[in-house]
Amino acid sequence: MTRVGVFGAGGRVGKLIIDDLHTETEISLGCVYVRNELDFAIDPSVLVTNDMNVFLKSSDVIIDFSLPEATQKLLECAMEHPRPLVIGTTGMDAHQLNLLKSASEVMPILYATNMSLGVALLNRLVATAAKTLRDFDVEIVEQHHRHKKDAPSGTALTLAHSAAHARNLDLDTVRVSGRDGNIGARSRDEIAVMALRGGDIVGRHTVGFYNEGEFVELHHTATSRNTFSKGSIRAAKWLRSKEAGLYTISDCLELQA
């Protein structure tokens, strides 16, 4: 049976992955990486370690929902001990993303800022709408719980990239992350990405296309983090037999372009 290693086990999604793996028949929890100690009980048959090399060697496929610095360490060590990696960490910088791409040359990596089927489909819809509604203004609003550290969310940025790519625009050039004061009229190609934080919101993303006389809004709301944990497990089962390369959740779900 395929042994799954969970990296970032102490996080909200990491704990859910461990719980959801108990119901799987094709794969099982084999190893958990921790920096210090787990603050919850775990099956005594599961290896718990803070040794990265031991963790990699004890896992057939790894699911990572951690922090950018931790993911960087995982990628650096995995270059020496390649393993299929499912990575859901958000907020990574340019160096860490480049490292991810380099690592995918020697191992299969599925990287997704959101593991849900709904968001994967939303990305496709956003690209279609952005291309079709070329004269409409694009505004993206994301909402998350008060504990989320990175902003805008990785999912919101992915949606913004989908819209920009569909219009042959460079997102880094046209993205706006806030408005304040007398800033003048909105530019034609502007794509705004705004972040709201509060309470225990799991995740809500709205992509709006606004024109004179009409507008279209696409929404996705996550009501449970199990959406992400179950999606990552599905991705791990799909990825375990793939060749080296960088994959997306759309590849896993076989969504057609």
In the CATH hierarchy, the third-tier topology of the largest domain is known as Rossmann fold
**Total count of helical runs of at least 4 residues:** 9
> How many angstroms does the end-to-end distance come to?
33 Å
Tally of strands: 12
Average predicted confidence as pLDDT: 93
Q: CATH-wise, what's the superfamily of the largest domain?
A: NAD(P)-binding Rossmann-like Domain
Q: Architecture of the largest domain in CATH? A: 3-Layer(aba) Sandwich
The secondary structure category is alpha/beta
Please state the CA-atom Rg, rounded to the nearest Å: 19 Å
Describe the protein's architecture and organization.
With 257 residues, the protein is of the alpha/beta class. The chain has two domains: 2-111 and 225-253, Rossmann fold, CATH 3.40.50; 117-222, Dihydrodipicolinate Reductase, domain 2, CATH 3.30.360. The protein has nine helices and twelve strands. α1 (12-21) crosses α8, α3 packs parallel to α4 (94-103) and α5 (117-132) packs parallel to α6 (154-166). The longest helix has 16 residues, at 117-132. 37% of the residues are buried. The model has no long low-confidence stretch (mean pLDDT 93).
